[in-house]
Protein: Neutrophil cytosol factor 2
Organism: Takifugu flavidus
Amino acid sequence: MSFLDTLKQWDKASTVADKQEFSEALEIFLSIEEPNSKIYFNIGCLHLLNDDLRDAEKAFDSSICKDEHLAVAFFQRAITYEESLADFQQTLKELRGNQLIDYGALGLRYKLNACEVLHNIALTEAQMGHWEKAQESLVKALDYRTESKLGIIDNALQATLKQKLFKLIGFPSKVLFKPNKHYVAELEKKDYLGKAKVVASVVPQDEFSGFAPLMPQVESGQTFSKPEPERLRALEGEPHTVLYKFVPETSDELAVVPGNVVFVLQKGADNWASVVFNERRGLVPYNYLERLEITMASKQNDVQSRPPSRQPPTRPERKSGLPPCADDRRNTQMKESELADDYCVVKVRYTFTFAILVPRGSSYAMLAEKISEKLSVPANAIVLSLSSEATEQNVIDGGTDMEGVWSRVSDRCITLWCRLAQQTNERVQKESSLLALHSYDSSNPEDLSFHQGDRITLLSKVNQDWLEGEFNGNTGIFPAAFVEEVPANG
C-alpha cells in the first residue's frame, strides 16, 4: 500500500473514530497493509476499548517494534500487561529527564507527564509489597509534578504511608494519533489550470477541432540543429528498469511492476538489491532489473514499453533466513503469518523487554545462547525464571524439564524473566567494596546513585564498563569509571 493510500485510510479511520464508531474505525485501521508505529498504537487503543487485552498487547508490541523510542507506547503496554514495572521504567527512561512529552505536534492530543509515570511505578512496587521503594518513587515524582498533578501525588504518598494501594493513572484510549493535517489537505485534488481552450492556430483552415503548438517563423533556407538529449538530474543510486512484476513476501521487500524505474543503492551477494522507488526503500531481486540510462530522449520510453518475458526468473533465496528481530532498528516486523508452527516467540523481561524467535522444544542451552547474544553477556551469567520472582521452583536452568516450560506456550508466545548472576570468573566476595571517586546521579530507575567518598558493596561485574553494587540498602548499576576498588586492609 502506498503512502497516499495509507494516509487516506488513516484519515478515514480517524474521522470515524471521532464519531465514536470505534469498531468500524478498527476495521479500517486493520485493513492498512503496512501500518506505522502510530497506527499500531491506535489499533492497540481500540482493542482496549473492546477489552481485547491480548490483541492490544500485540499491537503495542508492534508499535514499539516500529519506533522503540515511542514512550507513550511503553506506557500503554505497561497498563495492558499484568507485570508492568519494566515497561513503566522504560517509559521513564524515554522521557530522558524531561518533565513531560507533548505529543500534540505528532498528532496526539496528550501530554505524558513524568510524575504520572513515577506514580504508576510506585503503585506497581506497592503491589509487590515494596512500600519503601514506592515512597521513594513518589518523592521523586514530586520533583517532576505540575500544579494540576500535585494532589494526585500527595494522595498516593499518604496511601503508601498507611500501606494502602491507590488508583492507577491510565491513558484515555479514545485519544488517537491523527495524520498530519497538511498532508491530509493535499489529498483533495485541485485544478489550478482549468480546462484548456484554443484561442489561436497557425494551421490553415483550422476549425478548432484540435491544437497544434506555435512553430517558429524562419527565413528560407535556414535550419536548426536538434539539441542533444538532456541528461536528467543525477539521483542517488544507479537507475534500473523493472522487467517483471515482484510481489513482496516480507515487510522489508518492495512491490514493483514492469516499467517502474528504481535506483539501486547496493547489490548483495545473494542477488538481492537495495533500491529506492517513489521515495521508499526496500529489497528487490536484482535479476528482475535491467540497468537503464535515463535521458529525456525517447530511448527511455522504448525500454519501458518493451514487453517482459512471460515467466519471471526464480526468486533468489534470502541469506538472512528468518526475519529480523523487533529491536534491530531496521523498521521491520515479524509477521505472525511468516512464523512456522515449530517456532515460537519468547518475550524476555529484563530491564527492558525484547523478543527472540526459537524452535519450539529447544534445549535450555540454545535458549540461553540466544538471550546471551541479545544482551552481549556470557550464557552462564543468565538466570531465567517463569515469573518475576526467581524462586527455586520458577528458575530455569540446565536441569529443568524443558517440556514443562514449552507446555506454557500460548499462541506461539511465552514470557520469561531474566536477570544476571555473578559469573564464576568474575565472582565477587561480599566483603569487596568500592570507593566512589565521583558523584553519580541518574534518573534511570535501574541505576544506583551515590556521592563522592561513599563506600559501595560490589555485587557483580555486568560488563567491562558497568558494575552492579549495593549502597544504603539500594542496588543498581553504575559506571566502573566512577569508582575504584578498596584494598581488603583499606
About this structure: The chain is about 30% helix and 20% strand. The mean pLDDT is 76. The chain has four domains: 3-162, 238-291, 343-420, 433-486. Residues 135 and 173 are 28 Å apart (CA to CA).
